[in-house]
Amino acid sequence: MIFASHARKKAGEFFLISLTKSFGRIISLIIALWFLSAGILFGADARPILIIYHTNDVHGHVFHERDRDGNPIRWGYDYVKTMVDRDPAYNKLLLDAGDVLSGQAFANIHKGELIGRMLAMMHYDAIAAGNHDFDFGWERLLSLRDVHRLPFLSANVRENLDNRRILLSYMTRNFPNLKVGIFGLSTPSTLTTTDPRNIANLTFESPEETLKTAGEMVRRLREVEEVNMVIALTHLGNEPYSEPSSLTLAREVPGIDLIVDGHCHSKLTEGLKAGGTTIASAGQYLENLGRIEVFRSSDGGFEFKAKLLPASESEHIVPKPELSSALEVLREDMNSELEVVTARSPINLDGERERIRSNSTNMGRIVCAALMSRTGADAAIINSGAILGSIPEGDITKGTLLSVMPFGNYTFTVNMTGADILDVLKDGLSRPGTGAFPQFYGLSVKARRGEAAVPDGTMEALIVSSVTIGGEPLDPDGRYTIAINDFMYHGGDGYVQFAKYPFNEFGTVDYIFSDFISKASAEAIRRIDNAEVLTIE
């Protein structure tokens, strides 16, 4: 019995040893197969040699934000910085593709100063100079760069006086066995997408010159700096109206490995390929954080695995206390600034939703009058959804402006036909009760009540009977300059009539309104208040 028990024990031990060895062989086989498949996908080295995080078109949306249900909708700089710092990768870059200094009203309070402080804490490796980064004037851009040591890049913007570039054209970063060159490009459309006074005495190279400059940057980085990888950090955009677009850059300028792009607010979920070059863009307003894994390919080049991390992925991140505290101090500074009085209104300005979305109100007329005054347009039209409340008689604080006009919309002018203006008015007035309902000034419209067809039947509408502009009947074949906001130009609220026309760009609507009402006489404000621009027969 003792012998039998001992034999069974030995047999059990032999079985366990054999099973353990077999299991080990299986695990080794699985690991070997994983490395083999990774090698096939990404070349000889399956581990990323570099991680690139990127943002673009932040436009002042720098704080972590949640919706009404508590879901994160924007990353916030403290969460972005924490995410980047806690990534275990040794080789990392943090890039921004431009339009970072202006946009939200608080960003404009000190002409980008608060944003500059935040960027200094972020330690971006490079930032492209976007068209809206010139909104406070190019000298202000250089001042913020110098004070906060901000790494702005642009190779295609020069000062007229001595033809020198106003910003660094490129920079290099060294990693173990890898040298990366990064050059910057600004959109040539900056000539018409910021106030011309902001870029006086500057030359923005033409699309053709910009592509030539890009080629020169590639050659210098490859041949002089002897980099292994070239990244173009661009504020060009990838839409057909972008000249040149990042797509054109990729196809026509060889030697660029990666383009990190901004300007069109494009959300490229997994990036895209053009001419053998990967293009990445993270959308807008820190709604996403771009992350690119870089691998060595079997041919000695690089493979890029791009993806976007939505703000929802910040849910379980605990930001570093020192970052959150520093941002909170800046927020408090901002709040104190928002209490500053910027103007005074001699009357109550009516922006209540139930009225401004169904009739002309004095708030809508005064905003439009301000746009006309600033741009010299023949008339102005904005969607009523751009105004979210009323302003009482008396002092107007910056905080009030931010709550009433929070979108940071820019002012555009387009030179369009009378026929298209009529179409805009017919379209908007047919949708009372919605944010598309137009507010306007410089035009006088007569309309009657009727019905408009909608997918599930009909709804109450205003039917246009006649329109005058500048006291004269609107000529369908005539051309008129109309001030609008960028939201409408890009098709917001279904307005499709504007985008076929070139546009000129001015400041933000809230800033232009505040400046206008602070300087206009009480008599002028009351005259606009009493103006009859929409007569319902």
What would you say about this model in short?
Helix content is 34%, strand content 27%. The protein is built from 16 helices and 27 strands.
Protein model, in words:
The structure is a single chain. This protein has 537 residues and is α/β, with parallel strands linked by helices. Helix 4 (113-122) packs antiparallel against helix 9 (321-338), helix 11 packs across helix 15 and helix 11 crosses helix 16 (522-530). The strands form seven sheets. The protein has a six-stranded mixed sheet with strand order 6-5-4-1-15-16, with no helix packed on it. Strands 8-9-11-12-14-13 form a six-stranded mixed sheet. A five-stranded mixed sheet has the order 21-18-25-20-26. Helices cover 34% and strands 27% of the residues. It is built from 16 helices and 27 strands. Residues 1-44 have low confidence and may be disordered. The termini are far apart. It has two domains: 42-334, Purple Acid Phosphatase, chain A, domain 2; 341-536, 5'-Nucleotidase, C-terminal domain (5'-nucleotidase,  domain 2, Alpha-Beta Complex), CATH 3.90.780.
